[in-house]
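lol ok so funny story. i was supposed to be doing the assay writeup but got distracted and ended up predicting the structure for this chain instead. priorities right. anyway since i did it might as well share w the group, maybe its usefull for someone
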Amino acid sequence: MSFSGNVKEELAAYISSARHCQLAELASLLLFSAGTCEGNMHLRLDTENEAVVRKCFTLLRKTFNIDTVMQGKERLVPDDALESKVIQALHLGRMENGELDLTASVNSLLIKNSCCARAYLRGAFLSIGSMSDPQKSYHLEFVCNEKVQALQLQAILQEFQIEGKIIRRKKYNVVYLKEGSGIVDLLNVMGAHVSLMNLENLRIVKEMRNSVNRRVNCETANISKTVTAASKQIEDILLIRDKYGFENLPDNLRQMAEIRLEYPDAALKELGEYLEPPVGKSGVNHRLRRLSEIADKIRS
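and the output, tada:
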């Protein structure tokens, strides 16, 4: 199963103990996953997501003490009176033709509490959410049919200091997160704690791997830079030896030139320890720079 599927399985198994939170999540599930049967006004689930179906059955039974029934391949609320009771309690609206209005945002009364907002986000992710494999990239999104629903989701995320952005994709309005830290925060808000820990473990491994790669690249660049500089220094010293003569150099520069030729791979600090008396890295660098200036004058 994909990482996104695992998150949904975990959220589907999470049942809040508070009825007001159950109502908020049920409202979210029905708003994003319900429909009406052709030819009548009965409420039905319009989804192939088994996690959503199971969660709806459970919440309907817990909040209204009713069970859905099968009619052909569709799962319906069995009684018109019960259906009206559900729609009224969840503050779902009807259009002029009597069909359920699934284009509106959820009533703010259902999500006024922080716990209910968390429940609403759970239902939204189960219905219209998805997440990429975090080993490849960090991306979580909610695909909304209506912009007003996307804006409401964005606002709810903002209440938990989670920055969600909206993009238009074909006929859909997509609320998305691309930061690993934001996705971790959202999983925590929704109650997907096992998935959160799995994601954090993946993030740690990924960050350690990136850190090692950066360090290796940095050290490789430094080695390359050191080798290039040493090659130039030796080239300059050989030119001075052949065209000018070490005997014409001051003692400190002559000694520096001889030590560099003797230890072509040594770092500046190591070269300074071979000198008599020893000098620091800056002193070695100064002498090598003076040798380079002499070589440049010989070339010119």
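The chain has two domains: 11-191, 224-299. Residues 193-243 form the longest helix (51 residues).
back to the writeup now i swear
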